[in-house]
Design brief:
The chain is α+β, with helices and mostly antiparallel strands. The chain has 5 helices and 8 strands; from the N terminus they run H-E-E-E-H-E-H-E-E-E-E-H-H. It starts with 7 loop residues before the first helix and ends with a helix.
Length: 217
């Protein structure tokens, strides 16, 4: 673990110091549960609300969930969102009775200027295999994606592939998928497709978003 009460310059230095510990090949066992991770904000962004929705990997049924709320202490800076969001996510994870086998995070994995988006950061801190599932592009270039479900093209930074742009539903905007930690690109895409039903977003993200941004019970 590292301090969270840091300046943006210190946050970048932390990312750069941890990057070489990220594992970008398949390094996981049997996947029985998969968790969606999403973060919302309340009261004019002064409260961070993190949610984790744990689903059965085979049935995609919700089996556990957790929500944590805490004051927002880091500014909104693209490329450093993990410093704004992860403290609340870790607080929510402590509420789970069992650790999920896989994390699908709403955000970037290595498709990031420093290859260290929230999925890479969270996966490394927890040791849990993780994948970034982003709704928009932060970094990298790509060709047009064919319109059919399952179509995908590489997301590139020069000659290096950093993820895939994946169309999970025909004629609907694609998602930006990249490894976080302990998952390779091909498996990252497979996991997302297998967690996606008739909607654009995987069920993990849909369930976690409802908890992070929906009305409180």
């Amino acid at each position: 673990m590292h301090p969270w009460d840091v300046s943006p310059k210190e946050a970048i230095a932390i990312q750069e110091s941890l990057l070489n510990q990220v594992v970008l090949h398949d390094d996981f066992g049997a996947i029985r549960t998969v968790a969606g991770v999403d973060v919302g904000f309340e009261e004019n962004n002064t409260i961070t609300r993190a949610a984790i929705a744990v689903l059965d990997y085979q049935t995609l049924e919700l089996v556990a969930s957790a929500v944590a709320r805490r004051p927002t202490t880091f500014p909104y800076i693209p490329g450093l969102l993990s410093f704004r969001e992860i403290p609340a996510v870790l607080q929510a994870m402590l509420q789970l009775e069992e650790v999920p086998d896989l994390l699908l995070c709403d955000g970037q994995g290595i498709a990031h200027p420093r290859r260290f988006g929230i999925a890479a950061h969270l996966g490394l801190l927890t040791g849990i295999p993780s994948v970034g599932v982003a709704k928009s592009r932060l970094f990298g270039t790509h060709a047009d994606v064919p319109e059919f479900r399952g179509a995908h093209v590489p997301l590139m930074d020069g000659d290096e592939q950093i993820g895939v742009v994946l169309r999970t539903r025909a004629r609907v905007r694609p998602l930006y998928i990249s490894p976080g930690h302990r998952v390779g690109i091909s498996s990252a895409m497979k996991f997302v497709m297998e967690c996606t039903t008739r909607y654009r977003l995987p069920e993990t993200t849909r369930q976690a978003h409802r908890l992070a941004s929906g009305p409180l019970d």
